[in-house]
Amino acid sequence: xxxxxxxxxxxxxxxxxxxxxxxxxxxxxxxxxxxxxxxxxxxxxxxxxxxxxxxxxxxxxxxxxxxxxxxxxxxxxxxxxxxxxxxxxxxxxxxxxxxxxxxxxxxxxxxxxxxxxxxxxxxxxxxxxxxxxxxxxxxxxxxxxxxxxxxxxxxxxxxxxxxxxxxxxxxxxxxxxxxxxxxxxxxxxxxxxx
Length: 194
Description:
CATH class of the largest domain: Mainly Beta
Helix content: 25-40%
Order of helices and strands: EEEHEHEEEHHH
Number of strands: 7
CATH topology of the largest domain: Pnp Oxidase, Chain A
CATH architecture of the largest domain: Roll
CATH superfamily of the largest domain: Electron Transport, Fmn-binding Protein, Chain A
Strand content: 25-35%
Shape: globular
Oligomer: single chain
Strand order of the largest sheet: 1-2-3-7-6-4
Mean pLDDT: 94
Distance between the termini: 46 Å
Number of domains: 2
Structural class: alpha+beta
Number of helices: 5
């Protein structure tokens, strides 16, 4: 901590644009809930929670969480579309993680969905394993499929258009994904109304 009481740890990875991560937050049941969190590069780093999610409630309750950078599309799909809880905060699939404090700095609504914006400040971080980065279009399609699937049945979105997107993402996974991406897409189907 600095003299002003602000965290001084650094992020374990370079951030740019919106980086998809999985965040774990401690719930009232003393388990760590895993959910996706898009973190926005900047000073400070920010993120938004949408709706009355476990992440939002746990951020308010605990004031912190563990942002994790994972490279397993199945872990991401499960976290995005189902309730996944663990006894420990750091996921086995995390390549790197950052324990952050969170502070709500803005709130609003889009359509019928309330959102809250949070500043994330690193307290500590770790690198679990270093890998040579690869770009897998299938993994990208899985991430986009989780977004589309999570909006099915939401009044402000057109289900037919979302299903068209899902069909396109499925074709990308079929052409450009590997076995884990295909399994992740099956999880998207299992965990949604697609």
